[in-house]
Amino acid sequence: MAVAKVFVVLILCFAIVYYVDAGPRRRPVAGPDIYKGKNVAKDSLSPGEKVVNVMSFGAKPDGKFDCTQAFMDGWRAACKSNVQARLLIPQGRFLVSSMFFAGPCLTPEPITIQVVGTVVATTDISEYENGEWLMFEDIAGIKLIGGGTFDGQGKSAWEFHQDCESDPTNTCVRSPSSLYFNKVTNGVIQNIKSVDPKGFHIFVTNSANIRLRLLKLSAPATSPNTDGLHISHSTNVKISKSSVETGDDCVSMIQAVSNVTINRLKCGPGHGISIGSLGKYPDEQEVNGVRVKSCTLTGTTNGLRFKAWPDKYPGAASDISFTDITMENVKNPIIIDQEYQCSPNCKKKPSLVKIKDVAYTNISGTTTSQIAVDMRCSKQFPCQNIKLQNIDLKLGPTPVGSRCANIKPIYVGIQRPPACP
Ligand SMILES: *[C@@H]1O[C@H](CO)[C@@H](O)[C@H](O)[C@H]1NC(C)=O
Ligand SMILES: *[C@@H]1O[C@H](CO)[C@@H](O)[C@H](O)[C@H]1NC(C)=O
């Protein structure tokens, strides 16, 4: 009984966190990008930089001792230092529960967290009442680097997950993301691995000027809701030279996201690169300015996807381009689905999401389904200015087809499958 009560209280806490997260918020003001032009790839100690080792705060690298307090004390020492400082997580396995890396920091330059070893999440889900695992908040300037790994130990949580993506009510309990960036500006997350998160690998929200490079995110294809990079309410996000093998979307971009570039991403298994779901929340701000270039999708269920709910809220996506994308055995390489969770034979009122100014250029490779280009737009707001240029998708020896509803695509160059009649 007592256990059940605790569980209910926990559910409520999660629900509140999730509900607040779902509310109408604006994207942050970006401000200047402090890393522009600088070689962020190079990591060298600046003169006089203080190295704060979690071991000197009592952390033990045995994978069993709970290092949460040591990490919190170490973070505080580094973040509140007036001289330049970095938090070092050395070789070994460090067991850490849910915790905040809260700013603002006082270091003159961006604070560095250097992870060499492996940070391991505790498995007792009752410790995650704040919603996520490692939460980076209110930080202007941070580098998370070092070649180390974040192990979310998600396996036990996956059995109990609630499917928030396909839950049309906004009261669902999302599983904790491994790395959660909230109100972070000027962040570099580079050369980091994430395995088996309970929820998303990385969640970026209310943030601006974020670079994500050389990341290796992995989880089993069967793990539920383990999005690689989930982005909302953020602007100027650059993702490059990374790989995502996971159970859900490789990258998902939802409301109030602008100026995202994705370059040289390898994705699969997983559900592909996704804009949406859109039209899920009241007062959604649009997704605008997304450039996806030189990416490979392998064995994913979707390639380049828009998903929008029918019969719900208004929303929009515009100025989106996909260029030089290779598909290998992708089920739905190009898909606009404005009948999300409602097809086939959707009888609901049309989606109120407006999709316009989208360009697909040089998309080639192989698919596993008869309909390689599947574009089902809203009857009320047909898609506008959707351009397909040099599309070359094959299904073994048999020809593939296209489907179009409420869209008049602009076709240029090669079209395999053939254009819609
Ligand atoms: C989006 O990117 C462009 C080009 O890099 C830049 O001029 C613009 O200010 C950015 N928008 C925001 C909201 O930061
Ligand atoms: C698309 O591919 C063609 C032929 O390989 C190439 O000439 C062209 O530059 C590519 N376009 C873009 C935008 O990358």
TrEMBL record:
Pfam families: Glyco_hydro_28. It comes from the Eukaryota. It is found in: Secreted, Cell wall. One of its GO terms (biological process) is cell wall organization. InterPro entries: Glyco_hydro_28, Pectin_lyas_fold, Pectin_lyase_fold/virulence. The active site is at H271. Belongs to the glycosyl hydrolase 28 family. This is Exopolygalacturonase-like. The gene is LOC101505482.
